[in-house]
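Bug #77: duplicate submission created two jobs. Keeping one. Sequence:
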Amino acid sequence: MRTAIVTDSTAYIPKEVREKYSIYMIPLNVIFGQEEYREEVDITADVFFEKMRMADELPTSSQPSIGQFVELFEQLAKDYDAVISIHLSKKISGTYQGAVTASGMVEGIKVYPYNSGWSCMAQGFYAIDAAKMALAGKEPEDILARLDELKASTKAYFMVDDLTHLQRGGRLSGSQAVIGSLLKIKPLLTFVDDEIVPFEKIRTQKKALNRIFDLLGEDAAKGLPLKSSIIHANREEQALEIKDELEKRFPTVDFSISYFGPVIATHLGEGAIGIAWMLK
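Kept job's structure:
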C-alpha cells in the first residue's frame, strides 16, 4: 500500500526536507488588512516580521478551506492508496477538523486525519517520522501507532515577550495576559489536552530558559535517545547560542533549530522562544 503524508504549514518543515521525504504541505493563511498570504508559499517568516513591525494593526490568521483539502486528497488519490494528514492542535485551529470533513468527501483513497496536539517542529517531527515509515512501505496503522508513541513522549515549553498576542487571539485567557503584563513575568507555556496553558510563572527570560534546560535534563538523564528542536520567532542568533549550550550539556541529544512562522508568530509575537523534544 502506498501512503502519502500530509501536514500543514505550521509544522515549519524546510522545503528541502519536505521534498526529500515526499511530505505534502497544505498552507494556513496570515492576513494583513485586506491582504491574505499563504505561509510558506506567498510569505516567508522574515518578510512577515518586517510587515508586522510596520502594520497599524496586528495580523490575523485563518485555516485552509475544506475545498483545499479535498483538492489535495483527490490529487493524491491518483498515486496513493492512503493518506495520513497530520495537523496542529485541534483546539487552537480548525485545520484538523477541516481534514476530517474533507476525508468524508473524497473517493478512491483512505484518509487518516491525525491531531498532533502540538504545532511547529513538534508536529514536524511527527510528519518526518511518518514519511520515513511511508517510504519504507509501512502500513498506515503502523505509522499511526508510531505517532501515538511519539505523542506519549513529546514535551515542549515556550515563552513569549508579550502575552497580549495570545490573549487577543483567544489562545490564552484575558486575566492570565493581564497578570503577566503587570508582573513583568515570563511564564512558561505548554500544551495540555490540546490547549495552551501556563506551566510556571517565572520573572526573567534567563530563568525561564534555565527551567526548560532543567526539564530537558531530567529526561536526558534517563538515558533514552532524544531529539530536540530550539524554536524561535526571529531570534536565530539566540537560538544558535542555546543550541550550542545544550549540545555541551546534553551530548547524547540530537538538536536542531526551527522557527515560529507567520501563523504561529501572529499569536506568539516576535521574540518567542521554545524547546521541544521527544524520543527518537
